[in-house]
Amino acid sequence: MASLLRGAIWRLFPRKGYCSWGTQGKLSQGFVEALKALVGSPHVSTAAAVREQHGHDESMHRCQPPDAVVWPQNVEQVSQLAALCYGHGVPIIPFGTGTGVEGGVCAVQGGVCINLTHMDRILELNPDDFSAVVEPGVTHKALNAHLRDSGLWFPVDPGADASLCGMVATGASGTNAVRYGTMRDNVLNLEVVLPDGRLLHTAGPGRYFRKSAAGYNLTGLFVGSEGTLGLITAATLRLHPAPEAMVAATCAFPSIQAAVDSTIHILQAAVPVARIEFLDDVMMDACNRYSKLNCCVAPTLFLEFHGSEQALAEQVQRTEEITQHNGASHFSWAKNAEERSRLWVARHNAWYAALSLRPGCKGYSTDVCVPISRLPEILVQTKEDLKASGLTGTITGHVGDGNFHCILLVDPEDPEELLRVKAFAEQLGRRALALHGTCTGEHGIGLGKRQLLQEEVGAVGMETMRQLKAMLDPRGLMNPGKVL
């Protein structure tokens, strides 16, 4: 079907004299008209302001705009757009909400940005089987709003109201991952438009089983692929029962070591904590100011527990004993929804709180993940490195997974400061690798961590990835310049 479609497109818009793609990196007017013919003129833009908006994410990577932005309305149009672009050698950059932090949407070779946010339907809900099928424009907040009265929820929450298929593409995680897993654990099937326009269902059309031993794990291949292998046009997601009750808490510690030791001891005691987040003293000070909290300015854990009232009482008691043994103080328990929401809104606004520490500067965020046992070592060392660097920055993280983030404030007009930020991020990544960890727990590779990826997986690993990329995208047009 796809080959017939491509043939029809090429007959309608012959290649000769049609697309001036090459050293100029610009689209001919004929090619732009072809885009409009496929999706309608209102859904195509070559305006400079629109292209600029789609040429960057939340990262420090400089804006590199595409040559055109297109908003398809359905999977058939996505397939037609991919076939058209691929047939004429035009790069394709998928775009969701633009909340990434590794430059994943920068159009380093120009091309066509395919904004998938107009495809925003929840296609299917199977409450008895704990699954839902969503289009790429559906955000995790929109899905949970839809599920509100069903007794189910989707717990993967990266903080920003990201699109779910974008979260699949970046292998997103978040505050609930310690109990419910990351996107890798919660995707059952994907509908993917391959670079040449063919349509792939990674687990077979319409299937949403919980386990399988049938063939290669194609679904896992596309989770975290960062738009370099295809365009995700639908995701079948695993849902979870909404907890009967929740309770949250904050507690301060005399040192980073004490806070992280408590994290390890809580996990070793098999307390089924749902969230366990670490914020250093600088981050806590910023959150107090930005979100009007009144927490102690010290290394702090934010915790949350899910379950029955009886189970929660036991979990809270055991956790309090463990943290007090490690010197914790200033406990604050939040049981009602409003109090809990206030804590977690403050945690999710940590990025903006950090930015407020140095008005007028930009934020640079990097993350790593290490085995839990190595977390105290790397966090203490990272705090010392941050002080030694002379940079303004905070540390926060999903420590229940061994994952943490550094948010650095930098003047983008100061080349020397930018070099110090780059050196700090590379040092942190290599420190994590030396401790048998990864250079990124959830941000992805994007533009900035390609060298670290090579060091992490080695020559054979990189060659295997390149072979997979070449098989699916032999012309190298899917989000070029990212990951590899």
Automatic annotation (TrEMBL):
Cofactor(s) essential for the protein: FAD
Keyword Transit peptide: yes
Subcellular localization: Mitochondrion
A GO biological process held by the record: lactate catabolic process
Any one of the GO CC terms: mitochondrion
MF terms in GO: D-lactate dehydrogenase (cytochrome) activity; D-lactate dehydrogenase (NAD+) activity; FAD binding
Domain FAD-binding PCMH-type: 62-242
Superkingdom of the source species: Eukaryota
Top-level EC class: oxidoreductase
EC code: 1.1.2.4
Alphabetized UniProt keyword annotations: FAD, Flavoprotein, Mitochondrion, Oxidoreductase, Transit peptide
Gene3D superfamilies: 3.30.465.10, 3.30.70.2740, Vanillyl-alcohol Oxidase, Chain A, domain 4
InterPro entries listed in its UniProt record: FAD-bd_oxidored_4_C, FAD-bd_PCMH, FAD-bd_PCMH-like_sf, FAD-bd_PCMH_sub2, FAD-linked_Oxase-like_C, Oxid_FAD_bind_N, Vanillyl_alc_oxidase_C-sub2
Record SUPFAM superfamilies: FAD-binding/transporter-associated domain-like, FAD-linked oxidases, C-terminal domain
Family, per entry: Belongs to the FAD-binding oxidoreductase/transferase type 4 family.
Listed name of the protein: D-lactate dehydrogenase (cytochrome)
